[in-house]
Amino acid sequence: MTHSEATFNYRMLHPCLGATVSLLCHLSHPEPYCVPGEESLETMIEQLVLAGTKVDRRKVYNADGIIRLRHFYYIEVLLLETAGHFQNKDTRKICFDNSKGMFALPTMIKSTADHFSRATPETFRKLKRYFVEVSAQYASNGIYKFALEDKVEITEDRQQVQQSSVSLLDFFFNAKTCLAKTFAVLQELQHEDEENNEASSQEVLVSEIICPKIFRLTYNTHGKDFGRQTIE
């Protein structure tokens, strides 16, 4: 797994995401599915097009894995970023991938607001999207404002491999639980949108309230400014 990022993804992370989706199969309505490996974030492309930006699909935001809902407008609910190979200590890569997630998640949220524009803000506040970053270290100086749901430490130490494996399973089982809650909120948003649309009762649309600036980071252009943060 220390050979390359692709090997790390192939041997460990993509199978874990696939297993997480399999655990959600009983939720047949949204039908989640996982797309591994350098997959374009379609919500980013969608929002850039709506903003009038010319999009070159060769230079779009690519995640290391995405979970989408096949029967729910192909909404993207989780993205994976792997900051290099296992035990990588390149702080610039780690911090850059963290920031990619910070810019990607608002586009996922905005896209959902556009789909269910007449849902209530109160329900929308319950909606969560998930960003899984895999790295050797964590930023500790408060720059990144994610709400941490869970974390897991992976080791190659043979004396700790059993406990590490159990912790990894617990992490992705928790991810499954979180995603199930997200599915439930999405269905609630859809129900509210349909009700309010028929009654024309919503004066301010959720899509008008949630309007983040969409910005796509690229490593070659913006990566040089990363890696100066304190890492532990």
Structure explained in plain terms:
With 232 residues, the chain is of the alpha+beta class. Helices cover 45% and strands 12% of the residues. It has helices spanning 5-23, 42-50, 91-115, 121-124, 161-199, 206-209, 219-222; strands at 32-40, 62-69, 76-82, 130-134. Strands 1-2-3-4 form a 4-stranded mixed beta sheet, sandwiched between helices. The longest helix is centred in the C-terminal third of the chain and has 39 residues, at 161-199. The chain is globular, with a radius of gyration of 18 Å. The chain starts with a helix and ends in a 10-residue tail after the last helix.
Task: Kindly summarize this structure in a few lines.
The protein has 7 helices and 4 strands. By secondary structure, it is α+β, with helices and mostly antiparallel strands. β2 (62-69) and β3 form a beta hairpin.
What order do the SSEs take from the amino end to the carboxyl end, as H and E?
Answer: HEHEEHHEHHH
Number of helical regions: 7
Structural category? alpha+beta
Q: Strand sequence of the main sheet, in spatial order?
A: 1-2-3-4
In this structure, how is the largest beta sheet organized? 4 strands, mixed
What is the helical fraction, as a range of percent? Answer: 40-55%
